[in-house]
Structures are given as C-alpha cells and as structure tokens.
Design goal:
single chain, about 100 residues, 5 helices
C-alpha cells in the first residue's frame, strides 16, 4: 500500500484537492482480482535490491551490448564474479 503524508504534498493544491485527498484517506481498502490482498507468503517473495550507477567506457559498453538484450544481467554476473576473485580485486585496487 502506498502512503502519502499530507506534509509531503505540493503547496499549490487547492482546498478542494486537499479535501478530496482527506476523504480518500478515510475510504476502506477494496481488494479484487486485479489487486488482491497480499498474503504473508506473497510478501516473503519480495526482497530489496540495491541499484547503483557506474560509468563504463563506450568501447566496453559496445562489448557488453554485443552479448544481446540480457547484457545488464551478464554485466551484473561479471561484476559478481570479479568481486569474488580476491586476486582480481587486489589488482584492480592497485591501478
């Protein structure tokens, strides 16, 4: 469920818009086939993923994209392999 705090809303809302939001806040949640209530087992399937941005040279980006549409997954796997290779990490840190 998404939650919005009233103090995080834009200042330019009209009084009517604010009243509509406050009324919606009091409405009950309605679950249906398109939006069922999530069970504990369903919620356990979610896990946090950290995303970062890294810079890759254009020549290396061309090489990575040549692997096909799953290139970001392949790049992630390469990074995992590299970070688990102590000698490779040591060599990369010293350059």
């Amino acid at each position: 469920m998404a939650m919005v705090m009233m103090n995080s809303l834009p200042a330019e809302l009209t009084p009517e818009e604010i009243a509509e939001i406050e009324a919606a806040e009091k409405m009950p949640l309605v679950f249906d086939d398109d939006c069922p209530e999530m069970t504990s087992d369903m919620l356990k399937q979610f896990h946090r993923m950290d995303n970062i941005t890294i810079r890759i040279s254009s020549s290396n980006m061309r090489k990575v994209k040549a692997f096909g549409p799953d290139y970001s997954k392949i790049l992630s796997n390469l990074l995992d392999l590299a970070l688990n290779d102590a000698e490779l990490v040591k060599n990369a840190c010293c350059k």
